[in-house]
Amino acid sequence: QESSSDFCFGSLSNIRNFERTKMALEEEEEEDEEIRKIREECREKPRHVPLRITLGDALLERGQTEKALAVYQEALRIKPSYGKAKRKVNETTLLLGKDHREEKSSVEINVPEDCDPYEAKERGNKHFNAGKFEEAWYEYCIAIDAIEKQGKMPDAKLHTNRAACLLTAHRWVPAAFDGRKSIEIDPEWWKGYWYFGQALLGQLKGKKRYGPAIKEKAQSALKALERASECQGFPEDKRERVSQLQARARHIVFHLAQNSTCAQQ
To answer: How much is the mean pLDDT over the chain?
Structure first.
């Protein structure tokens, strides 16, 4: 399963990661006060891995994905056994649209040259319906990779299928990537917006501090959920659920607007 992937970084990779992080730490001119404060704490406690994860999360919330990845990789370099750092590297690499298997992983996706992606998709569907989400995820990965290697038209439904697997494991970032990818492939497919919106809201769970980046993410989630409900084929039995999710997104946006108003007074 994607979430259990263990990365093995060689010394050369470590050096590159360190240099990337060093460059990211030096590019602070346009960063806000919160980021600068966390960076300063990292300098005071250079071996404090959770602080670096916090910094990476803050950068990710502001859309600075490459910087966030560099920080997560540096955290993993400091403490290779830190599971959360491994997961963050994996998720952020996926978000950038790169193949997370570029790094050596304990999960190898083997795609035979004569692989039929739609047979893999059917196997994935059977696993999913049986509640075997890890096995389903694996088969959907095979199908997606096979389609890409064979130069076939990408399948929006495959990406939403994989997103559904990731959501069951609370893998919000890669689920958002697959939801967004599905929307790019087929803007009329409601599940792309549905899973993208849910994944964005999932990323906001447990946030103790709200800022402009959180507001933007909540607004994007709200727009996606509204678009999902407008698409042809959206199930009637999901109307109540989508209303609940939209209400949560509106609450976050309203809360931030109120805080902004109070700060100006």
So the answer is: 80
Query: What are 64-116's pLDDT values in tens digits?
Result: 778 888 999 999 999 988 888 888 887 777 666 544 444 334 456 778 778 99
Q: Cα(first)–Cα(last) distance of the chain, in Å? A: 50
Whether 27 shows a pLDDT value over 80: the answer reads no
Burial (CB < 10 A; 0-12, 13-18, 19+), residue 226, is middle
Pick the range with the lowest mean pLDDT from 132-136, 147-151, 198-202, 255-259: 255-259
User: What's at 238, amino acid-wise?
Assistant: K
Q: How much is the pLDDT for 103? A: 35
For the residues of the chain, what is the DSSP string, one character each?
-GGG------HHHHHHHHHHHHHHHH--TT--HHHHHHHHHHHHSTT-HHHHHHHHHHHHHTT-HHHHHHHHHHHHHH-TT-HHHHHHHHHHHHHTT--GGGS--SS-----TT--HHHHHHHHHHHHHTT-HHHHHHHHHHHHHHHHHTTPPP-HHHHHHHHHHHHHTT-HHHHHHHHHHHHHH-TT-HHHHHHHHHHHHHHTTT-----HHHHHHHHHHHHHHHHHHHSTT--GGGHHHHHHHHHHHHHHHHHHHHHHHHHH-
Contacts of 132 (CB under 8 A, 6+ apart): none
pTM of the shown model: 0.62
- For residue 140, what are the CA distances in angstroms to 89, 100, 162, 230? 21, 15, 6, 27
* Integer Cα distance of 154 and 184 in angstroms: 10
